[in-house]
Every structure is written in C-alpha cells, then in structure tokens.
Amino acid sequence: MQDLDHQAKTIFLKDYKVPDFIIEHVDLTFELEEERTRVYSILKLKKQRSNETCPLVLMGEALELGEVKIGDSLLDNSAYEVTETTLTILEVPESFILEIETFIKPQENFSLEGLYKSSGNYCTQCEAEGFRKITYYLDRPDVMTLFNVTIIADKVKYPVLLSNGNPVDAGRYDDGRHWATWYDPFKKPCYLFALVAGDLAFIEDYFITLSGRKVQCRIYVQHHNIDKCGYAMESLKKSMKWDEEMFGREYDLDVYNIVAVDDFNMGAMENKGLNVFNSKYVLASQSTATDTDFMGIEGVIGHEYFHNWSGNRVTCRDWFQLTLKEGLTVFRDQQFTADMNSAAPKRIDDVNILRTAQFAEDAGPMAHPIQPDSYQEINNFYTVTVYNKGAEVIRMIYTLLGKDKFRQGMDLYFERHDGQAVTTEEFVSAMEDASKIDLKQFRRWYKQAATPEVSVTEHYDASAKRYTLKLSQYTPATPGQEEKLPFHIPVKISLFNQRSEQIPLQLVSDKKQIVDAQAHNVEVLNLIENEQEFEFKNIEEKPVVSILQGYSAPVKLHFERDDEELAFCMAHEVDDFNRWEAGQQLSTRLILSIVESINVGTELVVPDYYVDACATTLQNKSLDKALIARALKLPTLTYVGEMMPVIDVDAIHQAREFIYSQLSQKLSEDFLHIYQTNSQREYNLSPASMAERFLRNQALSYLMYLGEQGEKLARAQYLSADNMTDQMAAFSSLVHHETASASEVIEDFYQQWKQDNLVMDKWFTVQATIPNASSMIRVKNLFEHEDFDIKNPNRVRSLLGAFCASNPICFHDISGFGYDLLGRYIEKIDLVNPQIASRLCVPLTRWKRHNEKRQQLMKAELQRLMAIPQLSKDVFELVEKSLK
C-alpha cells in the first residue's frame, strides 16, 4: 500500500531512458523453507556508458535484506541505502559481480505477484513488476540477460522443481532436501522468470519440430486433476505445428512445460519454457468443461505458446509497448483458433468482445491508445484496448499488406530483432520495409484513443451505370486528446445484386484508393481523409453493398438502411460476418424502438418482417449452425446501452425480454424442431458437433419462455446430459427462469460438483447472473458460503465479477445495492490483492453514462473509495481518473 503522494506519481513514455547498467548474467539460488525462503543472486553487471559516475539503483518490495557483496567484499550499511522500493549501492566500478541475499515469505503473499504459494505449491507471477518481490533487481523489460537457476527444497513435500529453459543438473542432500538447476540459453527480461516447486503429477508427450528436433512436452497439475490435461496437450501440439506452418517459427528449447495453478490473477503467463496457467485454461473433460471452456483452453494455450517468439525472443522495450507483444499475439491466437474451428463464428465472438468491452472503455474515463503515453500503475493497462484493439490494429496491417507480404514483414521483424527489447515503431517499420507499403498515417492507431465513427452514403446513377460510395470519418475527443487526425482505415467491400451474385468492381478514379484485391470481386478501400468518394463503373443495376466485410476495422459504422434492406441482408449477405451484423443492426434498432415505446407508454410490437427474417435464418440449411446460433442471440444490454445518450438499463432489459418472449411464441415450432433435430448422437469436439450443441441450447433458451414446456425439456436435458455443455445450458435455463425446480437443481448441482473448483465457479456464476431482483439477496448470501474464498481470483470473478459485469439489471438496481456491494468488496480485496481489486472497479468507472440517480450513487461510492487511507495505487488510479 502507498501514501497518496506516491499513488499520484505518473510515469511518462517521453521520459524513457536506457538503463544505466547491463546485467550480463544472473545466477539465482532459492532455498525454499516453510517459514521463509532465502534467495541468493549473483549478478554480473557493467555500466552502459563507461567512465560515467552513477549509483546502482535496484528495485525491490517487501524484501528482507541479508548481505550484499561486490566481488569478495562484504558491504556495510554505509555503502548502500534501502527504501521500501529500492536498494541503492552508492559507488560501483565499471564492471563487477554483485551478490545479494534476500528473504521472503511466499506463504503470506496473497497479492499473487512474485513468489507465492497456491494449494501448497510454490509458483511465480512476475509480469509486470512481480520479480522485485523476489529479489533486488533491475526490474524492467529492456534489461535482458541469461538466467541460471538452482532450486533447493524438501524432496518429499516438493518433488518437482521447475524453472525456465532446459534442466542441466539435479541431486539430493543428506538432510532430505534435493536440488535442480535450470539454464535458459536465451536472454530474457526478469518478467519472464518462472519457478514452480511442488507435489505435482504430469502427462508427457513429444513434438518433432520442422528441423527434426524432439521436444519433451509436459503438463503439471495436482494429482487429482491428471485426467483433465489431454485436451490442453493436444492444443499445445496443434499450436506448435500451426506456428511452424503459418509463421515459420520453430520451438527452440528441449522441453516445454505447463503448470496449472488454482490461484492466479491472469489467464496464463508465457514464461520462457515454463508457462504458468490459471487452471481454468488447462483442466477439461467432457463431464466438467463446456464447449466454451474447450475453445478458451485452445486459444490461451496457443496464445502463450505463440509468445515464445512474439514476446519472448522479441520483447517490449518498456511497458508502454505492451501491445507490441499482446496485441500481436492475440491476433495470432485468433487466427489459430479460427483455423482450428469455424472462422466466421470465431470472428463474431472476437468482435462481440471488442464492441461490448473495448468500445465502452474507449468512451469512458480510462480511454487510452493501444500505446499509452502515461500510467500510474502498469497493471491497470492490461486492458481490452491494449489486447483486443491491439489485435485489430495488427489485423488491419494484415488486411492492408495481404497474407504474403504480412508474412514477409513478420519474418523480417523476427530476424531483425531476435534477442532484443523493441518498440511498436520498430514493428511497423519492419512491415513497411518488407512490403514497401507506406504506413506513416496508419501509425496513428497506436497514438490516438477512441473509436472512429465511419458514416456511409451511397448513390446509384442508372443512366451512367455508376455507383458512388461516400465515406467520412470522425473520432470523438478523449481525456487528454481533444483533437484527432484522420485514421488510415481499411474498408473491405464487395457489391452484390438481388440474386446474391457478386458484381465485378472497377473504380473510376486512377488514384491509388484501393489495396490490391484480396479476393475476386472484393476490394479494400483506403479511407485516409475525413471524407472520400469511391466511384464504381459498369454497374448494371443498383447494387447492395457489403461493407466492412469481416469487420475490417474497429470502427462504429453509420449506414442508414431501412428495415427491409437489413432483413434482406440478414438472409442474403455474401459475407458471413455481415450477414450476422445485419441481424444485429436490425435487432438493435428494434430494441431501441421498443425502449421508446416503453417510455411513452405505447403498445409493444415485434414486427412481422423481423420475425420472418429470424425464421428465414433458422430454416437456412446452407448456413453453419454456429452462425445460426449466434444470429439468434440479441445484442447485449451493454452494447445497446452504448447506442443511447443515457443508458436506460431497465427499459433495455424489458425490451430484450419482450422480443425473446415474442419470438419464442411465434417461432415455437421452429425452435422445437431445431431442438429435437440437433440432439447429440455421440459427443465429440469437432466444430460441427459443437455447433449443433450451441444451436440446440440456443433453441432451448427460447423455449424456456414458453413456461412448462420449456422447463420440462430443460429438466430432462439436465438429468440426461452426458457433457457439461448440455448440463450447464439446462442448469442455467432452469435457474435463470426461476422455475419450480430451480432450488432443487441448484442443490443437486452443488452436491454433484462441490469437489471440483472450476465447476463450482460456474455454480456461483449462474446464481450471480439471475436477471431478477431476487438474485441480489442470493448473491449477498453466497459471499458467506463455505466455498467462497476472497483470496482466490477465480472465485471472486465467478461471483462478484459476474454479478457486476454480467447482470446489469441487478447491478444497476436503483436501490444502489450493487454499487454498495462492489465498493465494500473492492475495499476488502484491495487489502490482499490490489490487482484484482482494480479490475473489479471498471463497472463503477462508467457512472457518467447513467441517469442522475444512478450517477449520484455510483459517484458517492467512488468518492468513498477515494477517501480510504492507504488505498493501493492500482485502485487509486482508476478511481481518480473516473472522478475527474
């Protein structure tokens, strides 16, 4: 915890300076003991600039300092200064060996940063600044060195000893302890350091690289979870093969280890050769994991593996460059998951996250570009902007360059910067140099915040057979950036006629307004000015434009189309994403119109054309079932709220429920047919099988609005399900609709799964997201449940996080219950884990988007938090910016 003066300290990108010292090599020895752990480091250092007089300032937090030596000389207290955050050695030679002894207590480290214990096992999390909680060090990403690590521990309690790189030696002592030494032959910053020691079981497999090297792959878990690792291992091997085929990146060590831990602030960590994972993204079986869980495991396993090159071999110079590794690697894992499954549904899911979470961030007090220019607490910038919008920026480069030139750019980037800590500018320069395409204006995506808004108007001249698209862009002001320059926006389009036939595209202008064609009859328009016109010739009839195909840029698109045209596009669009998007636009427009009817007291109506469009989609046998299922889901309350000047939570919820109810009644036979004809024959994890389950369970969610008929189907499915996807779908349906059997299945589910932590997280989440006022008392009581643990991030996210982020109708209850609940638990969690506490703050930061009463309540809670003495700088930064 910090005093307020320290909390308010801001770090700026413009103040970056290269480190005064280089660490050429480090030897670390860990003596793991139950009361306290001894860490002994031997650093080989030299000054960055010779003949310069400067002290050596090392970072360190919550450390007990033992001895300090330079060469053979033991330093006395007068030779160095120690504060709560630094160790400063006042005079040092040009090059020298520094030895430092520190003591730490991992068993008392509930922040889950540095070295800590989870389920009795030692593990680490060092990104972003956790290494300084292990030993005094130059804890910054641009200090890269070679690590040699020896771990000493009780052999019975901790038979497994792991660190980065390759194992080089091991042995045992007469006193019951044993040791293992690991050496990483590749330079890395300390944020990539990892250590694991514990009583763990493992599964083992091997991967043969393109060059014929045999890599040992192991996944370590607690003994009782050993039967849930197979899918993760298959995902790892798929990732290794895909990265070789798509990017030419071969794995470079002899071993690749993954360890699953129950207590983890993030999803996983890409430490070189030793990935530490939240168990949520490793453990899975047919009976305990849903299809969504399996997809998440595949994506996160891939993400951390791909970091081996985009993040480890080439890392970021400073934390302002975080999107350099995260945005790029999210793009890579998205491409991987799309290739392993169905591309269009994956794209829809990714865009949904962007438009629901990232657009809201862009429009709020925490708006920042993907390369921020300042921060107070770096942990607060592990955001959907840096990750997901960062991935969209990489995707736009891919679109502008095309597949082949993008690959050439990636090859040049890795070749040019292997073993270096670099900047986003150096990445973009590699792309330019390889492709010979100018990306000067495109760089604004890295520096400017907010979501650009693109407006579209069209004109067709039948006599001249010419079709004109007029595009304009506008970007709203954000904190610290009042004026915005125009972005370089790639707008992927095609034209088609009323028979869904694509029309050849011929631009009238000779200007280089387009990127090279990506496919037959598809062009990518370069929108680089505030306004531009694109004129196409030889257009025989008024076309339908398929614009922003595949969501080619992260923008808000304003294109006025009547309801009938949107319904036509929903049924006939040539681009799968845009087919879904037409339905989302139509649904959003309908929800907003019903909201207006609610507020003025007129009759609520779902028009026939909307019902017919949904029926056409349901009955379309040529469509991917995963696409149909997604098309049947209405836009979220959060997404629709962003379309309104003031978010009307209650009316949006009522409107969505009305539409679901009306569709269920008018299309009941269609939904029942879908439900019955997509019954599972034999469970498997093929994309087709998962799509069938998704569609069937989406149909069930509609049938629940029919009352007894839906409840009967859901109850039968719950009792007969042979997989967690179907059981969870039935369970949540019965509970969320508060059926007569809800209490019974809640207890039954608990008794069935109370020994499985990850399934119990689902049990908490289902109850936390009941969209009814009754859930507020239920949630309050669940905090007192014997299985709730405030120190476990997964459990906190499954209850408090789910209630506040995924149950808006209850979180925003006008009584202020949700705001008070969140504030009180942020205060409690901040005492043990500031990183998790700050992430929970996000729903409160959007207080200005609500009505006056809710604004008052949310602002009062933020002000109360602000006044708490010794508030962590993590929470302080978010609260302070929200109140400005």
Question: Any key phrases for this structure?
Answer:
884 residues, alpha+beta, 5-stranded mixed beta sheet, 40% helix, disordered N terminus
Summarize it.
40% of the residues lie in helices and 22% in strands. By secondary structure, it is of the alpha+beta class.
Tell me what you see in this structure.
With 884 residues, this protein is an alpha+beta fold. The protein contains 29 helices and 33 strands. The chain has an eight-stranded mixed β-sheet, with no helix packed on it. A five-stranded mixed β-sheet has the order 17-18-19-21-20, with helices on one face. Strands 27, 28, 29, 30 and 32 form a five-stranded antiparallel β-sheet that branches. β2 and β3 form a beta hairpin. α3 packs across α4, α19 packs antiparallel against α20 and α26 packs parallel to α29. It is globular.
User: Oligomer, anyone?
Assistant: single chain
Radius of gyration: 28 Å
> Distance between termini?
22 Å
Low-confidence stretches: 1-6
Mean pLDDT: 96
Biggest pleated sheet: 8 strands, mixed
Number of strands: 33
* Secondary-structure content class: alpha+beta
Strand content: 15-25%
Strand ordering within the main sheet:
6-5-9-3-2-12-15-14
Morphology: globular
Tally of individual helices: 29
The residue fraction in helices comes out at: 40-55%
SSE arrangement:
Blueprint: H1 4-7, E1 11-12, E2 21-31, E3 37-47, E4 56-59, E5 64-70, E6 73-74, E7 80-82, E8 86-89, E9 95-104, E10 114-118, E11 121-125, E12 145-154, E13 160-163, E14 166-172, E15 177-188, E16 195-198, E17 201-208, E18 214-221, H2 230-247, E19 255-261, E20 268-269, E21 274-278, H3 291-306, E22 315-316, H4 322-340, H5 343-362, E23 374-375, H6 384-401, H7 403-417, E24 421-422, H8 424-435, H9 444-447, E25 453-461, E26 466-474, E27 489-496, E28 502-503, E29 514-519, E30 522-527, E31 531-536, E32 544-547, E33 556-559, H10 563-572, H11 576-600, H12 608-618, H13 625-631, H14 637-641, H15 649-666, H16 668-677, H17 687-703, H18 708-720, H19 724-736, H20 742-753, H21 757-768, H22 774-782, H23 793-806, H24 808-811, H25 817-830, H26 834-840, H27 842-845, H28 852-866, H29 873-883
Parallel strand pairs: 2-12, 18-19, 19-21, 22-24, 25-33
Antiparallel strand pairs: 1-23, 2-3, 3-9, 4-8, 5-6, 5-9, 7-8, 10-11, 11-16, 12-15, 13-16, 14-15, 17-18, 20-21, 25-26, 26-31, 27-28, 27-30, 27-32, 29-30
Helix pairs in contact: 2-3, 3-4, 4-5, 4-6, 5-6, 6-7, 7-8, 10-11, 10-12, 11-15, 13-17, 16-17, 17-18, 17-19, 18-19, 19-20, 20-21, 21-23, 25-26, 25-28, 26-29, 28-29
